[in-house]
Design a protein that fits this description.
4-stranded antiparallel beta sheet, mainly beta
Length: 114
């Protein structure tokens, strides 16, 4: 958006492919690098990805196996817990590392930015 609130561009698509996002809430967190790349985090199949400034997937920083997928699956299938406000991962940047706060397991993880 520009200063007047007009949409200038957008990217992302709903897909099960790696180059997009699945579910109603994804991505659940986004951070922007100094060079304008986007780091995104997803819930459900917890994953952290890097996109260029035009929205093209560059790499997967963290696959679901990097997280406690058993606990993520429990949260995502428990009717009492399965809301967009529960679970998920928040991302922030610290130099060339991604700091990931995993709300589901109450743990921080560090990943190198590709």
């Amino acid at each position: 958006y520009d200063a007047d609130g007009e949409l200038k561009s957008r990217w992302g698509k709903r897909t099960r492919g790696l180059d997009g996002f699945t579910g109603c809430c994804n991505p659940v967190s986004v951070a922007v690098t100094d060079s304008g790349e986007f780091v995104t985090a997803e819930r459900g199949q917890p994953r952290i990805k890097l996109f260029d400034r035009d929205g093209k997937l560059q790499t997967v920083i963290a696959e679901p196996e990097a997280f406690d997928t058993t606990e993520h699956e429990r949260v995502d299938t428990d009717a009492e817990l399965v809301t967009c406000q529960n679970g998920g991962i928040e991302v922030a940047l610290l130099d060339r590392q991604v700091v990931a706060l995993d709300h589901t397991t109450a743990a921080f993880r560090l990943f190198d930015l590709a």
